[in-house]
Amino acid sequence: MKQYIAFIFIIALFISGCADIFQKVDQNVWEEINDTIDSDDIIDKTKPAISIKYATLDVLHKGTIDFGDVTVDVKKEVSFSINNDSDKPLTITSCTVNNGIFSVSTMISNKIIPAKTNFLVTIGCTPPATGVSAGILTIISDAGNVPSFEINLTGKGVTTDITKPTISIKQATVDVPSGGMIEFGDTDVGATKNIGLTIVNTSTKVLTIASVSTSVNLFTIVGLAGGATIQPNSIYNFSLEYKPIDAGTNSAAFTITSDADTPSLSFNLTGTGVIPVTKLQVLVDGSVKLDNDVVDFGTVVMSAFKDVTIDFKNSDVSSLITINSFTDISANGFTFTPLLPWGISGGSSKMITFTFTAGPDPMPPPVDVAVTFSYTEGSISRTFTLNFIVNKATLPQPLAYYAFEDTFNDSTVNAKHLTNMGAVSFDIWGKKGKTAKFAGGANDYLENLDLMPAGTYSDITVTMWVNTTSTATQRIFNIKGNYSTSYSVQRRLSIISSNAIEGYISNAYNPTPANVITTNAWHHLAAVWKTSDGINYINEIYVNGELKATKTTTTEPNSNGNMRLGWDYFGGSMYYYIGKLDEVRIYNSALTLEQINADKALSP
Questions:
Q1: pLDDT for 133-164, tens place per residue?
Q2: DSSP string across 289-318
Q3: In this structure, how many other beta carbons lie within 10 angstroms of the beta carbon of residue 212?
Q4: Quick one: pLDDT at residue 339?
Q5: Fold for domain 400-601?
Q6: How much is the average pLDDT of 488-513?
């Protein structure tokens, strides 16, 4: 039983101790927590907001304004601003101090401060004796954040050596205490920002400046040097300048020494260099390009070229922009004009033309290259990047390719070789190297009876260079099934009267306009037979890279792959080709216009 009584007694002592701790927390901690909540955490946003700024610095609720050294029985005044940061008017009910050493020189009872504005208040300190004095300035208002704003005031009474002059510094009408901040804010890199300051001598003695200096040369002193004098009860105006050379914040100390009663004053300087908005405008085809935008050269066929002109404009009439260099992209197939560097005077523009030339590769990769231009704008160095994109036309591997270099064999791995059925010969004067020459005699043609497997339809494109010596109707190319019976479902390419080209698909003729070719001259021909839905079958005829005729039928062409070059038997008549054929390619797919031009470019 005694053990239980002892345990209960210990528990009672513990509870009593906790109660004492909680009582101390209640007396000490909660008071501080309540002060914090009163000051900032519970804000009625339906009401205006108040803030205080002294010598460019924010003063918090229960913050401090220090008068520094103040001559005994001499009133020293400083000013601060009451800022209304809201979009509602702020009403100041009263502004009082609790110590008679301090005073409010500006009457502000029932003062209304409009939205987004401020009001300057001057307060004074008149110490009756040496030593530190303290007081509290209370501003009562209808602010939602701090309706009762308290500022701690301090000042130190000192005796003045009346044999020496006095010195103080003002920015506009506000005293800047020694150790205070002078802020330049954001300043464009390369530009200069100026802040005017005033030296005040309230004594009856001449004030002589011994030296002035800044610790960083981005900040300079204008209009004030060692040896300057300020007459009794007079002022002296000078300025500080800030000129940043890079983006970022800069800080320095500004120091004045003199023969005053306070012989050395020091101030903190700060400013932030920012990169200004460029005055350079870059346009392509009249459209403004932003940094890292794309310049699309489109599709460029093999061995062809494409020009794109870029217009650089200087939108600032008073400055000079100089383009110094840009990325060397000559290895990517680009050339350019003019030579660099060159300047763009204010309000004018200059143009630079980039030319992309595609190589002979039939299967080239696309081009995507970043071009960075380096330029100067005033004293600022800048860059601007454009991404050049080129889609180089690519060709599929042909099903068969006949170069006619002393052979009628297929140059691909498919071995779709041609049989010379008569007297087709070779000529050294081809479009590219040697060529096949057709005299137009009996059985003067080339044949392959196994171009494609029978029974399965396939899109086809045939391309070739043609140089005919005759204006008569001639069969250049055909592919069909049995040559003795399948006339109406073949695919055919012919030369007809009036120097026109005619395509044929199943039962539909597809002639071009007259005079699309001339005799004794090389012309690039391409014929496409295709379908996208298995219902409509289309024939397209291209001459020298341009679409000249299109025909659609619903009859499917014969799928068997018997192919002839230079002759066809049709409607009881023999039609032979007279002239030269070179660089014949047959693709088992439908080529696009870009690909047809790429094929054409293989034999420039």
A1: 999 999 999 999 999 999 999 999 987 666 78
A2: E-TTEEEEEEEE-TT-EEEEEEEEEE--TT
A3: 18
A4: 64
A5: Jelly Rolls (2.60.120)
A6: 87
What span, in angstroms and rounded, lies between the C-alpha atoms of 598 and 591? 10
Tokens 């980039």, residue?
A: 354
Q: Which residue has the higher pLDDT, 572 or 119?
A: 119
Cβ atoms of 247 and 275 within 8 Å: the answer is yes
Using only the alpha carbons of the chain, give its radius of gyration: 47
400-601: same fold as 168-274?
Answer: no
pTM, rounded to two decimals: 0.47
> pLDDT band at 362, cuts 50/70/90?
low
Q: Yes or no: say if 169 and 176 are a contact pair by the CB < 8 Å rule.
A: yes
Q: What percent of the chain lies above the pLDDT cut of 90?
A: 58
In the chain, domain spans: 50-158, 168-274, 280-392, 400-601
Distance CA 81, CA 99 (A): 21
CATH number of 50-158: 2.60.40.10
Instruction: For residue 364, give Cα distances in angstroms to 295, 332, 580.
Output: 19, 12, 30
What is the architecture of the domain spanning 280-392? Sandwich (2.60)
Query: At 278, which amino acid appears?
Result: T
Beta carbons within 8 Å of 134's beta carbon, 6+ residues apart: 99, 152, 153, 154
CA nearest 493: which of 558, 422, 543, 447?
543
Q: Give the lowest-confidence range in 326-330, 351-355, 378-382.
A: 378-382
| 51 pLDDT higher than 90 | yes
The CATH number of the structural domain formed by 168-274 is 2.60.40.10
Given a cut of 70, whether residue 431 has pLDDT beyond it is yes
545 confidence band (pLDDT: 50, 70, 90): very high
Beta 287-289 vs 280-284: how paired, if at all? Answer: antiparallel
Angle at 107 between CA 105 and CA 108, to 5 degrees: 125
What percentage of the chain carries pLDDT values higher than 70? 88
Q: Which amino acid is at 510?
A: N
Q: What is the dihedral of CA 372, 373, 376, 382, to 10 degrees?
A: -20
**How do the residues of the chain divide into helix, strand and coil, expressed in percent and rounded to 5?**
10, 50, 40
Calpha distance 298→130 (Å, rounded): 85
Strand segments (E) across 100-130 = 102-104, 111-113, 118-125
